[in-house]
Amino acid sequence: MFLQPASLNAAIDMLSQHQGRLLAGGTDFFPGLGALTETRPIIDISRVPELCSINLGADEIRLGAGATWSEIVAKPLPAGFDALKAAAREIGSIQIQNRGTIGGNLCNASPAADSVPPLLTLDARVEIASATERREMALADFIQGNRRTALMPGEILAAIMIARPQAERFTSHFVKLGARRYLVISIAMIAVALERQADGAIAKAHVAIGSCSAVAQRLADVEAALVGARSVTDIAGAVTPARLASLSPIDDVRASADYRRDAAATLIRRAVQDCFVKSGEA
Known about the structure:
This protein is α+β, with helices and mostly antiparallel strands. The chain is built from 12 helices and 14 strands. Among the domains are: 1-46, 2-Layer Sandwich (Uridine Diphospho-n-acetylenolpyruvylglucosamine Reductase, domain 2), CATH 3.30.43; 170-278, Enolase-like, domain 1. It has helices at 8-18, 29-33, 49-52, 69-74, 82-90, 94-99, 102-108, 116-121, 139-142, 220-226, 232-238, 257-278, and strands at residues 2-3, 21-23, 42-44, 54-56, 60-64, 125-129, 134-138, 143-145, 148-149, 156-163, 170-177, 188-196, 202-210, 217-218. The strands form 4 sheets. Strands 4-5-10-6-7 form a 5-stranded antiparallel β-sheet. Strands 11-12-13-14 form a 4-stranded antiparallel β-sheet. Helix 10 (220-226) runs antiparallel to helix 11 (232-238). The protein is globular. The N and C termini lie far apart (57 Å). The model has no long low-confidence stretch (mean pLDDT 94).
């Protein structure tokens, strides 16, 4: 059975009635089936207007969960979203970016989901819709493990909300390390968002890393150590192995755990330095 609702409420009703599987861009859905055939009803939510919109409010940016990567890249978002746009450009090919959705990337809950570190640096929240309520939670609480989220039966991820960055001196950057430049699952990836003082020193740092633990995470110790940094030497002194102790990388076909740990420190330093370059104060 193939169903195609025209509204979010209709999608919720169909999900409740048929206990089917949601389909948005399909870029994870169909590869995930492998040689199997889906026997449950498929509910195609790719044409639900509420899920596809991107709204730029004065205080909040609201990304519909069905917004595609190409749409996010094309939207005139604030500078703090540069890291998210950079991650969007790294997700697969142009064809994948035209179909893949930000909500699908989050619900897939891969440790290597490119959108998660940039969204964590923006303190993103998610809105979850069901027949009985709409609830919100921090993205950091939504993704609960490898391929596990906080979604309950009958719920749909509706939107991602981010407070509009107010700081004038706010820059962000995304760095991804893979076995090749494009079309690759990351070995490690870093997103950094910085607020700078008038003298160029870091006033506030948000640093998140993916592919180095079961869930992408913010690095609070590194963030605290970066406050006040204004030079390459300061940055190097702030990003030390001891401040990356929360990471739990694995050995796999892409890289060893030790390599990921070493790469993480290098990528963080590089991302912070690139933020300085963007602001013309390297």
